[in-house]
UniProtKB/TrEMBL annotation:
This is SGNH/GDSL hydrolase family protein. The keyword Hydrolase applies. Keywords: Hydrolase. It comes from the Bacteria. The keyword Hydrolase applies. It comes from Spirosoma liriopis. GO terms for molecular function: hydrolase activity.
Length: 252
């Protein structure tokens, strides 16, 4: 069984310690326990546009299962909150090919009191984003709608073997709200009618117990979060109505 998975650095288990595996590893382990031989091809991209470009260069018809994790960069981008106001994603850097480091190699950050001016600025930015999203004019959200439409158009001929993962939650309020905006795009009825959509919010809660702590990347899942997603994703895979490949596992 040949599987293609494209997502953000969660795919490679970013920040996990030695011996810990990503949600992809847990998912593959579950399939392997059914007796199936599995090969995995994985890519890390930071935007849906980059995902589409990568997929357009791959022989999608040769894979038995295609999984797309709408990760960091679906709405919020690794370049920071400022990128939310940028319409053209080609102007912000991509995280493709970034080295996946173990947690003990990541730099720690010293927690410092946040000044009133900074808190006020962040609150004002948050309110501005909410207002623009309500009016339908938030640039990044507008761009992501088009990116998702283009990606789904590319995947439509293969929809019987595609699983889409909605953006993982985030423990920080502003980023959590942005992920929710991205999730809403994936959970639209027209998308779910054509594709199997795994709702990450149904598995992971935006609480610290599911995320890395003590690093500069607190928005990434820890080992517990990865295992929960991997196991739930396998159960979803077995029950997904649009997936054809599962029948061979069920017969075995």
């Amino acid at each position: 069984m040949k599987i293609l998975i494209i997502g953000d650095r969660h795919v490679g288990g970013y920040g996990l310690s030695a011996g810990q595996i990503s949600f992809v590893g847990h998912f593959i382990r579950q399939i392997s326990q059914t007796g199936r031989a599995v090969s995995v091809e994985a890519y890390a991209q930071s935007t849906l546009a980059a995902v589409q470009m990568t997929m357009s260069q791959l022989p999608l018809e040769h894979y038995d299962l295609i999984m797309v994790q709408a990760g960091q960069g679906c709405v919020d981008h690794p370049a920071g909150l400022e990128s939310v106001f940028v319409r053209d994603t080609s102007r912000v850097p991509d995280v493709s090919g970034d080295l996946v480091l173990p947690d003990w190699l990541l730099p720690t950050i010293e927690k410092k009191p946040v000044g009133l001016i900074k808190r006020t600025a962040e609150a004002g930015q948050f309110l501005l984003m909410q207002g623009m999203a309500t009016l339908g004019v938030l640039p990044r959200l507008f761009t992501v709608r088009h990116e998702l439409t283009d990606l789904l158009t590319l995947l439509k001929p293969y929809r019987h073997k595609v699983i889409l993962l909605s953006p993982f939650p985030h423990p920080q309020p502003v980023y959590r709200w942005l992920r929710q905006q991205g999730r809403a795009l994936f959970m639209r009825s027209d998308v779910r009618q054509s594709f199997s959509v795994f709702d990450s919010d149904a598995v992971i809660q935006p609480r610290e117990e599911y995320f890395l702590t003590g690093t500069t990347n607190t928005g990434y899942l820890n080992a517990v979060g990865h295992e929960l997603v991997g196991r739930a994703l396998f159960d979803f895979y077995l029950a997904a109505p649009t997936i054809v490949a599962i029948h061979t596992i069920r017969r075995s």
